[in-house]
Design goal:
The protein contains 20 helices and five strands. With about 550 residues, it is mainly alpha-helical. The protein has a single domain, classed as Growth Hormone, Chain: A (Up-down Bundle), CATH 1.20.1250. A five-stranded antiparallel beta sheet has the order 1-5-4-3-2, with no helix packed on it. A hairpin with a 2-residue loop joins strand 2 and strand 3. It is elongated, with a radius of gyration of 25 Å.
């Protein structure tokens, strides 16, 4: 039965239309590209128990963001292994295994959410699903480059465009599914109507002689609620946020689509070339494009491989950390200053637009690189990216002082441009590899290069979550220093001396402190990501140096004809 998946059974017959490969590539990449919509799950996952807001035992943002990181790490690792396997068994086999892993990962992850076992969510979505990501990512790239030797950049743009657009489609599935399965927790009444008890930082009420945990929703928390509800006290554990059921539904959908797409793959016969096209003569080639081939194992012995590794890793690092918390970041920077515009729906649409521009960037920049060259394309990415990342902290500072829509528009435009270049970097790198190492083993070499993506999947989220955590801690302490201790005691039922416990139990947050802060106090939330933005600019500068020093591979590494 497995024979139908083998490489020898998918060699295209004479007259096969090469453009039919594009839908198969897009189908798989649109499914696995939904990983970029991970931030849409974050608000639900950190309210698994509290539902309307985070309870003391709910998962933290940092803990769930790392699931996205694990998925990207295993994407890179499986691509590194799967790239060489792809050369042996062909794209149909690899695509089928990808469908099983990606769809199955959602199922296992959903079980973890239902049971409260975070490790199962890591195993399912992160490890198993991550393997599906890597195998699905590499399956069409080398195939399309062989079908389109005349337009390498455009071919890789087509293949990888879908990955950038996956989150755009996922947006129209994830949140609707969550809302379908959503159930609000039991409402106990307003704060004044309920006798609250504070123990070890937790808020409790006595019901039928038993202390039960509750969460308190204030005015500043309303914007983050999935379904509109009143301010007041809600009973923990009596509702469901609906994300587990959404996982089960999505897993089934992705499995079916990816399996159908995998059976659409075909490979060209040995020696095939497009009608009317002849490879350009050696003396007609640009200096950075070779007609020679470098073996997949020999590529690892060249400095060019590691330069391209750094280029991809640092370009991805600068964007992927922001992707993982995109919805949260938009809400935190502008939600408190422009609440009439930036609500939960606006933040979700922001994720949708990131996906759209990510997708547009992949086909636009990759196709443009066929004309302006790969190295010049990356020159644009890094130079412009440095300028834009350095400008974002200034924008955040201005909006906290002057809540003008102008700053929101600038931030929106700047980040959209950043994400076109982020996506363009992914789509252009396979063509860059083909220019440097030839086309014969480009699929396998590309797979190994994707370990850079795995590394970036660690560096980016680690930087943004760690630096944000430090910023949050400092902001809370600064705000508490401005608040009268008696007012603090009245609000939280405990003194300032118990601040650490209250923060750990999520009883004290920046939002809740701003409700009792003196008039004129500037909300520090908009500046939580400033340090991260400067760090990303530095990272891009290093990548710029690597690209500037790129040269053709020494002839000693070329395969003998």
């Amino acid at each position: 039965m497995l024979d139908i998946l083998s490489k020898k059974h998918i060699v295209a017959k004479e007259g096969f239309n090469r453009w039919l490969i594009a839908p198969a590539a897009l189908g798989i990449h649109l499914c696995i590209g939904s990983v970029y919509a991970w931030s849409l799950f974050n608000p639900a996952l950190i309210k698994r128990l509290g539902v309307v807001t985070s309870a003391a035992d709910d998962w933290t943002l940092k803990s769930v963001v790392w699931i996205f990181t694990v998925a990207i790490v295993f994407l890179g690792l499986s691509a590194a292994v799967g790239g060489k396997w792809l050369e042996k068994v062909g794209p149909r086999m690899v695509g089928t295994v990808s469908a099983i892993c990606w769809g199955g990962g959602f199922i296992v992850g959903g079980i973890g959410i239902l049971t409260g076992e975070l490790w199962l969510l890591y195993l399912g979505y992160g490890v198993i699903g991550g393997c599906g990501l890597g195998l699905g990512y590499v399956s069409p790239v080398g195939t399309l480059i062989r079908w389109f030797p005349d337009r390498r950049g455009m071919a890789t743009g087509i293949a990888i465009m879908g990955f950038g657009g996956g989150a755009m489609i996922a947006k129209f599935m994830i949140e609707p599914f969550i809302k379908i399965y959503y159930k609000a927790p039991e409402y106990l009444g307003t704060v004044d109507a309920v006798e609250l008890i504070t123990q070890s930082g937790r808020r409790l009420v006595e019901i039928a002689g038993e202390l039960r945990e509750v969460v308190v929703v204030g005015a500043n928390d309303l914007a983050g609620m999935y379904a509109p509800g009143p301010e007041g006290v809600y009973l923990v554990g009596t509702g469901t946020v609906g994300v587990a059921q959404a996982f089960f539904t999505l897993g089934a959908i992705y499995f079916v689509i990816m399996l159908c797409a995998a059976f659409g793959y075909r490979i060209p016969r040995e020696g095939w070339k497009p009608a009317g096209w002849e490879p350009p003569a050696e003396d007609k080639l640009k200096s950075m494009i070779t007609q020679h081939h470098v073996h997949i194992d020999e590529a690892l012995k060249t400095r060019q491989f590691y330069q391209l590794w750094v280029i991809l890793c640092f370009n991805v690092t600068a964007g992927i950390g922001v992707l993982g918390v995109a919805k949260t970041m938009m809400s935190e920077i502008f939600g408190s200053t422009l609440p009439h515009i930036v609500d939960a729906a606006f933040a979700s649409t922001y994720v949708l637009m990131i996906s759209l521009f990510n997708m547009i960037g992949r086909i636009f920049w990759a196709s443009s690189s066929d004309y302006i060259g790969r190295r010049n394309t990356y020159w644009i990415f890094f130079t412009l990216g440095i300028i834009l990342y350095c400008s974002i902290p200034y924008t955040a500072q201005q909006v906290s002082v002057n809540p003008s829509v102008v700053w929101l528009v600038y931030f929106y435009a700047a980040t959209m441009l950043i994400f076109t270049m982020y996506g363009g970097g992914f789509a252009t790198i396979p063509a860059y590899l083909a220019d440097i190492f030839g086309t014969k083993y480009v699929g396998g070499i590309h797979g190994r290069l994707l370990t850079a993506w795995a590394s970036a999947g660690v560096f980016g989220p680690l930087a943004i979550t760690s630096l944000r955590e430090i910023s949050v801690k400092n902001a809370i302490h600064d705000l508490v220093g401005k608040i009268d201790p008696a007012t603090f005691q009245e609000k939280f039922g405990a003194g300032v001396n118990q601040l650490d416990q209250l923060v750990a139990a999520k009883t004290v947050t920046i939002n809740k402190l701003m409700e009792i802060a003196p008039s004129g106090t500037v909300d520090p939330t908009s500046g939580l990501y400033n340090t991260t933005m400067y760090l990303m600019a530095v990272v891009l500068f290093v990548a710029l140096i690597m690209n500037a020093t790129m040269r053709p591979v020494d002839a000693k590494h070329h395969m003998k004809e």
